[in-house]
Amino acid sequence: MVNGGSHQVPHAMQKRAGQVRRRGRRLVRRLKRLAAPGDGGAATGFQRELEDGELPLSLDMDSDSRTLLIALGGIGRNVSMPPFEFFKATGGIPCKRLFVRDVNQAWYQMGLPGYGTSFTSASDTLRELVAGHDVDRLVLAGASAGGYAAMAFGTLLGADLVLCFAPQSTVDLDELHAIGDHRYDERLGEVTAAGVIDPDWIDLRAALPAHRVANTRYHVYFADRVRPDRLHAERLIGVEGMRLYRFGRGNHNIARMMRETGALDKVLQRALGASGQLTA
After folding, report:
1. CA-to-CA distance for 186 and 100, rounded, in angstroms?
2. How many CA atoms lie within 13 A of 22 on its CB side?
3. Which of 3, 88, 105, 270 could connect to 279 by a Cys-Cys bridge, CB 3.0–4.6 Å?
4. Distance (Å, whole) CA 163 – CA 142
5. Which helix (H) or strand (E) holds 212?
6. How far apart are CA 244 and CA 278, in angstroms?
7. What would the pLDDT profile of 223-251 be if each residue is shown by its tens digit?
8. Measuring CA to CA, which residue among 95, 146, 92, 97 is closest to residue 255?
9. Among 90, 92, 69, 214, which residue's Cα sits nearest to residue 139?
């Protein structure tokens, strides 16, 4: 993650950082009050939140770990599988956990209900949440539309690693049609017509290099035989920090296939530092 380093930080920047941290702590306290865990404790409360399809943020920050895993839901409001199942793939590695759900089904371009109505407001909310905790390592993950969001927010937050499973690399309908991808014509057409798409984030091929502020690494997993997914990934070749992982089998739901074969567990556990080994 981005940190201050040893150089002198201007007073204005220090003041701004302090304000963000204080807002982050207030936001966390608000979310904990809304969660109101039952007798089962924090873990049960977190699971209950994950099952609420209308809740934009579900968090479990009780671990002493200084690693935070943020998983972003896509169209369908999950990560190619129920979010609790996705988090189970971490194998019990201690870490802080946050699940973000795109309740509006709009590639996060309409923000998070209760926290703003724009892509930028969603990013600011996540930044404040991260700032409200002692986080040394930040990992974001998402599939399909959630993979698009993971790359975008991971870049803005200065994440260490972003894990993407068959992500979209653009939400520009013309670019999608150019690679023969018509899977999102109806919903993305509605989002486009609403005029809510942030022009800075319509295409990740240009946005990631323009907004990269840290040594963020991006790992993109996809089934090579799914042509639109392959072309989305290949559009990102040349972006600094980008690494593509091709699978000879599977479909758009590559994350679930990886979960069933045990590959997802290994990817997440390496990303989070199992056995002291971190994915670069």
Report:
1. 23
2. 6
3. 270
4. 7
5. none
6. 18
7. 999 999 999 999 999 999 999 999 999 99
8. 146
9. 69
Question: Residue 167 in contact with residue 232, Cβ under 8 Å?
Answer: yes
Tokens of 241: 């920090």
Round to whole Å and give the CA distance between 57 and 101: 6
Sheet of strand 217-223, all strands in order from the earlier edge strand to the far edge = 57-60, 96-100, 67-72, 137-143, 161-165, 217-223, 242-247
> CA-based angle 81:84:87, to the nearest 5?
95
User: Tokens in use for 254?
Assistant: 């590559």
Handedness of CA 201, 206, 208, 213 (dihedral sign): negative
- Which strand (E) or helix (H) includes residue 216? none
More confident residue, 230 or 89: 230
In the DSSP assignment, the letter for residue 117 is: S
Mean pLDDT of the 45-58 span:
84
What's the pLDDT tens digit per position in 153-192? 999 999 999 999 999 999 999 999 999 999 999 999 999 9
Task: Name the token pair of 76.
Answer: 């369908």
The two tokens of residue 173 are 């309908």
Which candidate, 5, 1, 208, 194, places its Cα nearest to that of 110? 194
Token readout for 124 is: 């600011």
From 116, 20, 121, 107, select the one nearest 72 (Cα to Cα): 107
Amino acid identity of residue 122, one-letter, is A
